[in-house]
Amino acid sequence: MTWVLLACAFRGDNTDVNAKVKAIFLYNFSKYITWPEKMASGRFKIAIYGNYPALKDELVKMSRVKRRGDRSFEILSFDEVGDIVNTHILFVVKEKGKDIDAVTRKLKKSSTLVVTEGEGLINRGAHINLYYENNKQKLEVNLSNFVNRGLVISEELISISKVVDK
Amino acid sequence: MKYFLVILCCSIAASGAAQNILNRSLDSYQAGKLDEAKLLIDSAMTSELYAQQSISWYLKGFIYKDLYKENTSSRFGESARMQAITSFNKLLEIDTLGEYEKEARQNLVFLATTYYNQAMKLTQEQQLDTAVYYYKNFEEVYVPLNDTTISLEDSKAKFYFALGTGYVRRDALDPVSDHGHRALQAFEEVLAIDSMDKEANYNIGVIYYNEAVSKILEIDYDDADILAFGKFEDQTIDLFKKSLPYMKRAYRQDPKDKNILEGLAGIHFGLREFEVSNKYKMELIALEDR
Question: What is the spatial distance between Cα B184 and Cα B75, in angstroms, rounded to a whole number?
Fold first, then answer.
């Protein structure tokens, strides 16, 4: 019956479903967060710091078909802290969480939304940290960090987030 | 065939001249003139006299069985098979002395088997509803015989497995319609017979897993509003959780099956149980390194 076994094949071989979920979250952040006026024109830039090809692929796919208002998306990725430039969103992959202090220093004067996925990073400069709880993707936010960078988070997004600095 | 003809000749001869029409039908049958034999036996059966005799049903059963064998892929052949079955069943009913029982039962087993074989062939040809129809016919004919030459459980498990596989293939060609649900039902039939069947457990696990993955991969970004995303994830997590016990049972049957290890790694990854997922990935890598 081996042939039958193979006939029932997995959907999306090598597809990282969690990358799609993260891409959905990042896309949604672009809708529920407001950036300062100086960043209100040009392409909406989402960047990844670190190596996460599946997430980059998802974001690139998204950028081909979606827009933020009249703005198209641009997806970037950086391997080194020194390469990082101002973008609307910077997603720091888990393995690069150790560089969070350097990343926040680098972006000190910018309004880049820093999104991480590591324990404790929300108290070290990240605006939003993604984590899992009961098998589900969750997010925690540090509202002080939003205010400091001129970013405005919507009440709706706060309502589904764990706020760490009430 | 020789045994049958000897019995038939003796029986008809013994029943005297009144059996002339049966004799003529038998002669035609022996001469290979099946259409003529059919006309004569059908004519004879309109008479109450013949219709009450075992020998008439015996002869009719053989004539129609051979007509079916000569016309297996036509409607006429289909009808002939049903007539043959009816005849042999009637024979069993009225043959109180059991004179023809053995042969009647053998022929019914043969005819039931033709339904089964046809059902299995139809699953390969993707004629799945018709396959079910023929499988049901097989059961209807075979079950009352209380015959032990064929294992009914094995036959049923093999058929439903082939049926489930047929639905999986159809789903791959036509993912819009919900063939996966019917595949699940078919594989569950297999598990009702053997709950530890490795392939059926694996396939059900894959179907639930694929449904979860498809939901995630196919959702449009604008339909995936983050405010309602928790409810969406409830659905996908539920599917991953449904998949898990089936894949675990398959794993218990064969812990070195690479497909199953890949499945378990994928399910736990979908559930964000990364340590467990990695454990299965390591087992898979260890197997591949051998």
Answer: 32
Cβ distance B203 to A66 less than 8 Å, yes or no, reads no
B231 and A CB contact within 8 Å: no
B161 chain-A contacts, CB cut-off 8 A: 1, 4
Does the CB of A62 have a partner CB in chain B at under 8 Å?
Answer: yes
| B259: containing domain | 195-290
Q: How many independent structural domains does chain B possess?
A: 1
For the record, the structure tokens of A71 come out as 């703005």
- Interface size between A and B, measured as CB pairs under 8 A: 97
Could you give the ipTM of this predicted complex?
A: 0.91
pLDDT per position as a tens digit, B153-200:
999 999 999 999 999 998 877 766 778 899 999 999 999 999 999 999
Domain segments of chain A as ranges: 16-163
B226 contacts A28? CB cut-off 8 A: yes
CATH for A16-163, options being 3.10.620, 1.20.272, 3.40.50, 2.40.128: 3.40.50
Any bridge partners for residue A90, and if so which? A47, A114
Domain contains B254 = yes
